Every structure is written in C-alpha cells, then in structure tokens.
Amino acid sequence: MGLRGYPSLKTFNYRSGVDVGKGKDFNGDRSYKAIKRYIEKNMVEPDCTLDDKSSCSEAELVILEEAVKMSRADRKAKIEKLSADIKKTRKLANLARNNAERKTLTKQLKEVMKAREITEAAGNTQGSLMQLTDKDEFYNHCQIRACIVAFFPTSTGGAAEEREQHLKIMKAAHKKAKSDKKPVEFMWAQAGDHAELEEQLSIGNGFPVVVAISMKKRKMAVHKEKFDVPSISTFLDTMVKGKLTLLPMVPNLKFGKVTPSSGSEDEKIVSKDL
Predict the structure, then answer these.
(1) Nearest alpha-carbon partner for 228 in 177, 165, 175, 181
(2) What is the pLDDT of residues 31-58, one digit of tens each?
(3) DSSP secondary structure string, 84-102?
(4) What is the DSSP letter of 217?
(5) Which residues make beta-bridge pairs with 189?
(6) Among 147, 202, 212, 253, which one is least packed by beta carbons within 10 Å?
(7) Main-chain phi, psi angles of 189, to 5 degrees
(8) Is the pTM of this model over 0.85?
(9) Tens digits of per-residue pLDDT, 86-103?
C-alpha cells in the first residue's frame, strides 16, 4: 500500500473503477472538518434511485426507467451482462498502453458500474410486507435497502392465529417506518423455512425474532426484545441513527425455497424445498 509514515490515511472508492486496491493518499489537514470535507467532495456521490430521482442525470434516468419496465428475469440478465462488462473493461484499463487509453477506459468503466448500480436499484421498490420465499426474493428487495426480517414460530394447529397477530404487528411497524420515510424493507419468514440461514444468523430459538440486515454495509443486528410495534420501531430508529451495535454479516447467506402463502394470512405454508 506504500505507507511510509504514521499516521497515514488512504481512501478507497470502489466507484473509481481502476486500481481500487491501491487506494489514494490523503495529504490534507488531519482535523475532523478537513477529513469530512474531503470525503464529501471526493467520496460521496448521490444515488440515483426510485426513492430519489432528483439525483439522477438525464442518462441515468433513462437507464432507471428502462430497468423498472423489465421483468425480474430480464433485469437479472441485464445485471449479469453489466457485471461481465465491468470485469472485462477493468482488465483492459489495467492493461492500457498509455494514459489516454487508460483514461478513456476508466471513464467507460465508471459508466458501466453506475449502470449496474441503477439497474439493481430499479428492482428495489419499497413495497408492502413481503414473505421471504427464496434467495431471489431476498436480494430483489434487500440488495440496496436495509431489510428488517421477522422470523415467526412454525404455523401449526392453533399457531395460525398467533402468526396472524405477528403479521399485523409487522405490518403496523412497516407502516410507521414508511410514514417516517425510513428506506427499509420489511419481510417475514416462518421458522424452519430457511434453517441454514437461521443458523448463520444465530437465531435458532426464541421466535419470533427480528433481524436487521444491510447487504451494502455487510452488517446485521438481532432484536430479541418484546415483539410489538414500539419495540421494533425503537430498534429501527436506533439502527438508522447509527447507535445500534452491528455485527459483521456472514458470507454466502443460504436460503430455503418455500411456496408463498396465498389467500388468508393464516394459511399454512405446505411445501418446502431445502
């Protein structure tokens, strides 16, 4: 990394595209205000999303609107193609023969990376309380926004009415989060439907339990306190304000595949393919 003295500061911005691992030296004043000003000027870019189209350029808005019209399968295929283009362009940029060629390829790389980011964002509309049925459902809603996932006790026998009550609580908490303009998705799952995931998150008992997951930050937090709207809302508020102790996210989350509930919300999920 080329460090010669301490303290040393280096910045790493994945959006810069090329030579991300080498970082960039910070040679400014070591004061809080100077570092903050540098980050805001050089590191932070507004996101072009469905929640905030005001941050979109004309070209970005075209990409976003086209991606919104795509089916989930088409959008996934587009993202895969853009990912392949990113890999190819990054390789060419790193092998550029001169600065002019490198500069041109770096610009192309940034554009393709931004196009992939916007295409991913197009599939992340903040909607209603969703059932976590499989891996695709999770990443479709939680790739960009943080997700609050509630795991309910297994719905058998008289537990159906209990699940109905849990769903009402989650819907109410979700409604409050939307009214407070918190960009967070809400999902639910039945205990055992995603057994390996529950083991990865260390929530194998004591249902219902709520888990906050941020794929962008690769962080998570578990809420095992009282399961009601005020408690869940406080948990979310604490997380949004950055006052919640977050745990590192385990790699390669593993999901089951379940048949979505239909009809009455107290209908039992009858099939599962793990």
Answers:
(1) 165
(2) 877 777 777 666 555 567 776 677 788 9
(3) HHHHHHHHHHHT-SSHHHH
(4) T
(5) 151
(6) 202
(7) -150, 155
(8) no
(9) 999 999 998 998 999 999
pLDDT over 90, % of the chain: 35
Asked if pLDDT for residue 241 goes beyond 90, the answer is no
Residue 214 belongs to what H/E stretch? strand 209-214
Candidate from 46-50, 59-63, 120-124, 162-166 with smallest mean pLDDT: 46-50
> With the C-alpha atoms ordered 172, 173, 174, 177, is the resulting torsion angle positive or negative?
positive
Cα 86 from chain centre: 20
Cis peptide before 208 (omega within 30 of 0): yes
The 3-state DSSP class for residue 114 equals helix
175/182 Cα distance (integer angstroms): 10
Give the pLDDT band of residue 271 (cuts 50, 70, 90): very low
Question: Residue 14 pLDDT > 60, yes or no?
Answer: no
How many residues are present in the chain? 274
DSSP state of 229: H
Three-state secondary structure call for residue 203: coil
273 burial level (CB within 10 Å; 0-12, 13-18, 19+): exposed
Q: Is 151 helix (H, G, I), strand (E, B) or coil?
A: strand
Q: How far apart are alpha carbons 164 and 128 in whole angstroms?
A: 16
Look at residues 67, 167, 208 and name the one whose alpha carbon lies nearest to residue 125. 67
- SS3 for 25? strand
**CA separation for the pair 186, 132 (Å, rounded):** 10
Confidence of residue 126 (pLDDT cuts 50, 70, 90): low
Structure token digits, residue 263 = 């009809």
Q: How far apart are CA 131 and CA 84, in angstroms?
A: 31
The closest alpha carbon to 85, from 59, 123, 113, belongs to 113
